[in-house]
Amino acid sequence: MNFINLNGKITERAQTGLPADNGAFRYGYGLFETMLVKDGAIQLKDLHWERLFDGLRQLYFEVPKLLTPTFLENEVMRTVQKNQGGHLCRVRLQMYAAGGGLYGLESKSPGFLIECFPLEPEAILINENGLHIGVAEGLNKSMDSLSNLKSCNALIYAIAARQAKAHKWNDALICNTHGNIIESTIANIFWVKENVVYTPPLIEGCVAGVMRRYMMSQIPVTEKKLLLIDILGADEVFLTNAIKRIKWVRSIADVEYTAGKSISIYNNIFG
Q: Residue 180 and residue 189: Cα distance in Å, rounded?
């Protein structure tokens, strides 16, 4: 998928360029949404737009009146159609500080960049083989007013992903500054104990995931701090995000899990 939408202008990827003072490049000043487009529609679009615009306000962007969810949806779908990805694809919409001055504070209006990526049908199905994951070392995410944002400042996730690759894990878990597990590099985490589904509360510092929120509107979920001893003693563990939906975890370290309730939840919501 070779076409990119930069501030409403669609060009070939190789010909698209950003200015050197782009705030996201210089400072990680921006937000992004990763969205699933299926059968010509953005899945869970209202939750994506709500999170995005709440985040823009929190980052002190001045959003132009014409920059509405409807406008962005039209731009997303225009880009998807140009890339012929309407049946199934992943879209990354990034909003960034347009630059100028220290920390890009001269311009308060955000710019945007839309990319499309191919997606195999199996990506959105419950996984047949469970994931093997581990806990990232030497990385602790802070719990502050920015922790729940899906921001462009993602260095901790990139390094954790490098660790996962080095250990041949499918993903790595992230801890907060208290040492509690809060999420993975690309997903929110849920665990099951005695048929009760749990997930860490947002005050623990995890990203406010769209699929996390949707899941909690569909099934009973109890929010609880996740200690290492709790995850190792769980009956099941699964990860969620807006693209891959639900993926069950087979093992963490030497501990193995089952997948019965995870599969049942997937089938009840998406089957």
A: 12
Task: Label residue 70 exposed, middle or buried (CB < 10 Å: 0-12, 13-18, 19+).
Answer: exposed
Tell the residue number behind the tokens 């731009």, with chain if given: 75
When pLDDT is averaged across residues 175-198 and rounded to a whole number, the result is 98
Which residues, other chains included, contact 250 with Cβ-Cβ below 8 Å and sequence gap of 6+?
Answer: 129, 130, 131, 132, 256, 257, 259
Tell me the two tokens of residue 258. Answer: 């089952």
Amino acid at 134: G
Q: Does this model's pTM top 0.85?
A: yes
pLDDT tens digits, one per residue of 21-54: 788 888 889 999 999 999 999 999 999 999 999 9
Q: Which domains does the chain have, with CATH numbers?
A: 3-119 (3.30.470.10), 131-270 (3.20.10.10)
